């Protein structure tokens, strides 16, 4: 075999590994949302507004530092970005309500029906054929989530938390699929800055009608949520969509509940069950399989 071709293949594999590591780091940062969302003692819309306002500031400063072009090219692009921003806002608010209604494990795990939803919806958005492998892996994730979930009592708030979490998953899938059309034209950082800047304006009225009396005591955690989870984590995830399909990135991202449950154990004393370990192992298996499969593709 030609040495030049071998070097090219090796370079491509190294690039794939680099992009995969980047996606996994972004996933780790986004995973902090579960613990922070449960811990921060503020009304949910207020948390999301603070997250967006501070995150937008961090990202704007970063874009100026890196001299990124932050101009939106057309009205059509703005309309699409605005729509995806609304889905992101509803996703975040409903996800944090799910965390408050139940716990970190249930809130995060119900959200992670989104790989299945994404795999089913993606062909409708980008006119690709439905990939049976994504459906199979998505179903394995769903089985893992089913095993992880405790027995539900329809009269308590846990089931409500799960249902709200699944609705949040639908919004998250739609937001990612809408953004997929624009990641080639704009940087992931710019897209994230546009979205949370829009949400800062849309959610501003909540700051005048909700109780924010203890906001000063919550600033360190809100800043952490805005910088680590939002500005850095989500920008890395959006950037990864240039190199992976939404379905691939979503399935790899399914490691989030495992990371979130581990964090909840150490920081919130939420103790996982054996079902958590077994179901989590299934989810982790799909992450490894998809990582290997996408490398060979």
Q: Biggest β-sheet: count, sense, barrel?
A: none
Number of domains: 1
The run of helices and strands is HHHHHHHHHHHHH
How much helicity do the residues have? over 70%
User: What number is the mean pLDDT?
Assistant: 84
- Overall outline: globular
User: For the CA atoms, what is the radius of gyration?
Assistant: 19 Å
Q: Calculate the terminal CA-CA distance, rounded to whole Å.
A: 20 Å
β-sheet strand percentage = under 5%
Class by SSE composition: mainly alpha
- How many strand elements? 0
Instruction: Please count the helical segments.
Output: 13
Low-pLDDT runs: none
What does this structure look like?
By secondary structure, the protein is an all-alpha fold. It has one domain (26-296). It has helices at 3-39, 44-66, 75-101, 104-111, 114-126, 132-148, 157-180, 188-202, 206-209, 215-240, 246-252, 256-268, 274-296. α2 (44-66) packs across α10. The radius of gyration is 19 Å and the shape is globular.
